[in-house]
Design brief:
- It is a single chain.
- The chain is α+β, with helices and mostly antiparallel strands.
- Helix content is 21%, strand content 22%.
- It is globular and about 40 Å long.
- It starts with a helix and ends in a 9-residue tail after the last strand.
- Bound molecules: 2'-deoxyguanosine-5'-monophosphate.
- The site of 2'-deoxyguanosine-5'-monophosphate has 14 residues, from strand 2.
Length: 113
């Protein structure tokens, strides 16, 4: 989508601190980190959110979770990490391109989840 900021990040039109990239996904550091390690993992293909996922996206999402596991190891998040995907307005989704937050490097509280 031409007006999507994460599509622009994938294309390199908006700079980002890249952590990982392959043919299906891209990972970069969040511009407004909520934890010492805060990385976003996104599909290169534009998908609006978890709510918009279709059966043909299953392989991509499964792949993203394997990549998340690799990134967590590379970032030495051995003590644990949290993966969050906000979907829709009530969840506070602000960028309508599917993304998974990896949060780590700190002992997190038990609020919400
Ligand atoms: P969410 O609220 O779940 O939609 O999270 C969107 C995240 O995207 C938020 O934590 C801030 C991050 N973000 C927004 N714009 C940019 C950007 O241009 N660059 C980077 N690196 N992160 C961004």
């Amino acid at each position: 989508m031409s007006d999507c900021i994460f599509c622009k990040i994938v294309k390199g039109d908006i700079p980002s601190a890249k952590v990982y990239e392959d043919d299906r996904c891209y990972a970069f550091r969040d511009i407004n980190p909520q934890a010492p390690t805060h990385i976003l993992v996104i599909p290169k293909k534009h998908i609006d959110s978890v709510a918009a996922l279709k059966p043909e996206d299953e392989a991509t999402v499964g792949h993203i979770f394997t990549v998340i596991s690799k990134i967590a190891k590379d970032e030495h998040l051995d003590a644990g990490f949290r993966v969050i995907s906000n979907s829709g307005a009530d969840a506070g989704q602000t960028v309508n391109h599917l993304h998974f937050h990896i949060l780590g490097g700190v002992k997190m509280g038990e609020g919400l989840i």
